[in-house]
Amino acid sequence: MSARRRKAMRRSLAADRTGTAAVEFALLFPIMLTLFIGSYEVENVLLADLKLTAAAETAADLVAQTTVVGGALGTGVLQTSDFTNFTSAAADVLTPLPTGTNNSLVKIAFASVTYSTGTPTIDWHVEENGATAISLSNVPNNEALTNLGNASAGSLDSVIVVQVQYTYTSPISYVLNASYTLSESAFNRPRYVTCIPSAAPTTTDTGGVCPG
Predict the structure, then answer these.
(1) What pTM was estimated for this model as a whole?
(2) What is the dihedral angle through the alpha carbons of 14, 15, 19, 25, rounded to the nearest 10 degrees?
(3) Domain-by-domain residue ranges, the chain?
(4) What is the tens place of the pLDDT at every residue in 55-98?
(5) CA dihedral 56, 129, 114, 90 (to 10 degrees)
(6) 35 vs 31, 32, 42, 79, CA distance in Å?
(7) Strand locations in the chain (E)
(8) For residues 205 and 200, what is the distance between their CA atoms, to the nearest angstrom?
């Protein structure tokens, strides 16, 4: 092959743009796919967190609506079944996210804080599905309990604290093998009484009743 012919072929190849779009698409497709999947995943995680916030507020509100009749251990005292129902209601708020058999993926910790001694006191606490118990040293959001209620001797103030934890697993786990542990909390005051007693006979319940 002559030098002139080889030079002509090189010029022809250099000027040929056939397949350029396919090459550019092949280079950009992984980036575009990553951006699409990332946006989809971020949206799902944010939606799950918003639902978890609503679930925590729902659980706290249901506890706060308890009405006590007949004294400290009368009708209206919270029982184990009540906390199971509160957990079920919170799990319903998370729909359509999977919540597991008997809502096992939804971990909820309940607690009542009273102030009659002049300092915040955990009056009772109940945990569902292996949740971490709420104590004075691990109040959700690092909230100071003294800021939530009237801490003075003889105070009738009380606060309901609820923390909900949920492990979100990506619906496209075959692409992204990722899970995120989300946690949200809510604080509420009893609606109709100054303090709500609990008699839930569980190993994680202090068995507390309202002071006085």
Answers:
(1) 0.76
(2) 80
(3) 27-188
(4) 999 999 999 988 765 444 445 678 888 899 999 999 999 999 98
(5) 20
(6) 6, 5, 10, 49
(7) 106-114, 121-128, 158-169, 179-188
(8) 7
